[in-house]
Amino acid sequence: MIHFFKKPVSHLALPEKFTYPFHYTPHPLCVLAAEEVKEYIASRKEWQEELASGKMFGVLIVQTDNGITNNEENQIAYLAAFSGNLAGKNLHPYFVPPVYDLLQPEGFFKIEEEQISAINIRIRELENSSSYLNSKEKWKIETEQAKAVLNQAKAELKMAKEAREIRRQSSPEFSEEEQASLIRESQYQKAEYKRLEKEWKKRLEELETEVRHFDIEIERLKTERKERSAALQRKLFEQFRMLNAQGEVKDLYTIFEQTVQKVPPAGAGECALPKLLQYAYLHQLKPLAMAEFWWGDSPKNEIRHHGYYYPSCKGKCEPILQHMLQGLEVDENPLLNPVHEEEELEIVFEDEWLLVVNKPAGMLSVPGKAEDRDSVYHRLKKKYPEATGPMIVHRLDMATSGLLLVAKTKEVHRDLQAQFANRSIKKRYVAVLDGIVLSERTGSTGRIELPLCLNPLDRPRQMVSREHGKEAITEYQIISESERITSKSENTFNESNRIDELERSINESRKYTRIIFYPLTGRTHQLRVHAAHPEGLGCPILGDELYGKKADRLYLHAEYIEFRHPIYGDILCIQKEADFHKKYD
């Protein structure tokens, strides 16, 4: 399970702290390890068809201070893992084993799973049986028939009543005998209707009883399935006893008790990094650094690119890793470090009612949950203490730079937000895509309509969902395509980001697309997803570490905004060129 590097690595400095798994640049050792793992994966031809649909793999750099070798060079090694299972199995010689092998044939999971599968089969048999379907259809038909017959009978009763009333009014000197005859006629007709209604009710009850006999059994089986599934899930997650660097053990149910969802999501504990850390702790290996990469095609809804590195998922892994990383010295979340603390916020336009600022990349628009974090809102609230209302009219992603509209009064804020709501405000973004957009597929202009929603298991990522997503529309215009040969001094993946010579050589010759986006809606990460998704441009924005590859920044800039002044009624057009506009001409 432990792999020693094929090439010398003694010239590479070891990481000072363990990787922060939710926001990182792969350490050079991780890049080397990942390349070796990729070679191995490519050599396994029998897996290629399955892997073409996509799978996440991970590497963990470890120090083997346990007597495995006396060779100082070989004290640094790596472990490899895959998420979920591979080729129908959890156990493969090259990769670390799962924390718990739920696929073992004699294990309780497989046995109980077979029982639940048998219940599923019985439910499907009942739901699709000819007796059940015929009974339901007959009940439906005769219910409609009863309704029609009884409605007709009611109509005839009403007509007979109206006829008797006409006879009474036309013959005011009715005898008592004639009056009694009309009453008997009315009573008889009502009694006949009651008899008819009773007959149909009895008939429908008999048919409903036949249907209910099946429904009750189906519902009983579904209840049993639900109870057995919940019990199995709980028992299963109790087998996932996760270690940390301090030797403490917690099962998944205990770990997730403190979260909002309370119960572990399906697949928790089966991702690559928890497997890697568990194996390292069990075998007294010291974890030094990690990286996870995607192999194969992108999933239908999420965005993954072959060979790209990705952070660990939040929904499944964050609570687990918060426990498993205890006892390790871990890098700080770089997003928490204020990068513009000493810089003045550039104001592009201002009057007594509103202003437009040029938000730098890496600064929040609003503080979010961490109220003390540097943000445009904090800066302006301090600068304009007399301002009323929320001030920030719309938002830009933290990684996006550009024009941000700010109101000094709540009335102006309300007016500007209404302009956003009715889509009368026009915005233009400029971006650099990490690759070439195929002209035969997209042309120089186009329109992307992919509905978006939050990925609940991997915040803050967004996903394409035609079932749950909100409308998201982007128009675009390709400006230019170019191939740029980077030098060491210009390379966006520089030494400060800890990418070594191997990774640099991979990125030496890269192709780029300069593009303009016109968003017609304002969904979270809309431009980033529409650029990166296979059904969009299939080409992520340069520096988009959520949906593409990390660089020195996200190359997305809000360069133009046009709106009606809430007080004067004039149309204002504000523009601010991106600081990277000449870099990729």
TrEMBL record:
<dbReference type="Pfam" id="PF00849">
    <property type="entry name" value="PseudoU_synth_2"/>
</dbReference>
<keyword id="KW-0175">Coiled coil</keyword>
<dbReference type="InterPro" id="IPR006145">
    <property type="entry name" value="PsdUridine_synth_RsuA/RluA"/>
</dbReference>
<dbReference type="GO" id="GO:0140098">
    <property type="term" value="F:catalytic activity, acting on RNA"/>
</dbReference>
<feature type="domain" description="Pseudouridine synthase RsuA/RluA-like">
    <location>
        <begin position="354"/>
        <end position="533"/>
    </location>
</feature>
<dbReference type="InterPro" id="IPR020103">
    <property type="entry name" value="PsdUridine_synth_cat_dom_sf"/>
</dbReference>
<protein>
    <recommendedName>
        <fullName>Pseudouridine synthase RsuA/RluA-like domain-containing protein</fullName>
    </recommendedName>
</protein>
<dbReference type="GO" id="GO:0003723">
    <property type="term" value="F:RNA binding"/>
</dbReference>
<dbReference type="GO" id="GO:0009982">
    <property type="term" value="F:pseudouridine synthase activity"/>
</dbReference>
<feature type="coiled-coil region">
    <location>
        <begin position="190"/>
        <end position="224"/>
    </location>
</feature>
<dbReference type="GO" id="GO:0000455">
    <property type="term" value="P:enzyme-directed rRNA pseudouridine synthesis"/>
</dbReference>
<dbReference type="InterPro" id="IPR050188">
    <property type="entry name" value="RluA_PseudoU_synthase"/>
</dbReference>
<feature type="coiled-coil region">
    <location>
        <begin position="109"/>
        <end position="163"/>
    </location>
</feature>
<dbReference type="InterPro" id="IPR006224">
    <property type="entry name" value="PsdUridine_synth_RluA-like_CS"/>
</dbReference>
